[in-house]
Amino acid sequence: MHKFILPALLLAFATSTALAAPVLKADVSVNHPVITVGDMFSDAGLLAERALFRAPEPGTTGIVSLDAVRAAARKAGLTDYSQEGLLSVRVERRATVVDTTVLSGLISADLAVRGLLPQGGELHTRFDNPSLSYNAEAVETPVTLLALRYQPGAASFAARFQVAGMDLPVDVSGSIDLLVEVPHLAASLKAGAVLSPADIEMKRVSLAFADQSGVENLNDLVGKQLRRNSRAGVMLKAADVTEPLAVRRNTEVTVLLRTGPMTLTVVGQSLGDAATGQPVQVMNSVSRKILNGVATANGAVEITTAAAKLQVAGL
């Protein structure tokens, strides 16, 4: 007789489980536009995917009366369920906030793909309506950029976005300011100072302003010499620097004449300023003759013309 007890108990448990009535939930939270039987009831079974009614807008909450639940459930084919003393159901539709920061990020990404955002550049977007904010469905991609109208060099833009959970796309407009990092003087320096990396700090300025001003790259400034006294914070332009002077005007220099393995040196006076490799005239301190040469990195002047070599060789 005992061998019949266990199968009977299992059958009774399976039957009771199969016949368990769905239970109405007190709180429902969804991230899609239609409330289903499975959203509203626990243990909804085969009816779980059937629609009951539209969900509230993303980011909002609604209260559904039992009469409304009863009517919608009846249409879906659900008549036997437990409401466990509930008088209403609170329905929430989850949302992701899409604001100007999110929209600006999509615009920046689009410009980068199109090659319109300089390397290391930063985009500042000013919207005509700075308080723009949308409640999108809480999905992986809450908003998509559909179209962007923007011309390089122009400030204004117009964009169209599709926000998840909204039937129609939204159109926004505003202006774009592209910022780039450019070199600025870190401390006040006098004319003639040779710039080192420590003398330069990078700050962001408008791309249009940087282009108009002829700003140099950092690598093109290090080792260059300031043309004039400059204060801290000034943006460094091509016109602000020059190659460092190897020879200065009215200073005593060594004049070199190289002939084969032999080098002849005399003392002269520089008649001008010159960077390494630049031509400069010097006066022989003994003969008072004017010689043409080229400034070298160590501050000497090497004779380059045949006539000048003859003048030196004849001394």
UniProtKB/TrEMBL annotation:
Signal peptide start and end residues: 1-20
CDD domains: SAF_CpaB_FlgA_like
Superkingdom in the source lineage: Bacteria
Main subcellular location of this protein, as a coarse class: periplasm
Lineage: Bacteria, Pseudomonadati, Pseudomonadota, Alphaproteobacteria, Hyphomicrobiales
GO CC annotations, alphabetized: periplasmic space
Single GO biological process annotation from the record: bacterial-type flagellum assembly
UniProt domain SAF: residue ranges: 180-242
Cellular localization per UniProt: Periplasm
Name of this protein: Flagella basal body P-ring formation protein FlgA
Key words, A-Z: Cell projection, Cilium, Flagellum, Periplasm, Signal
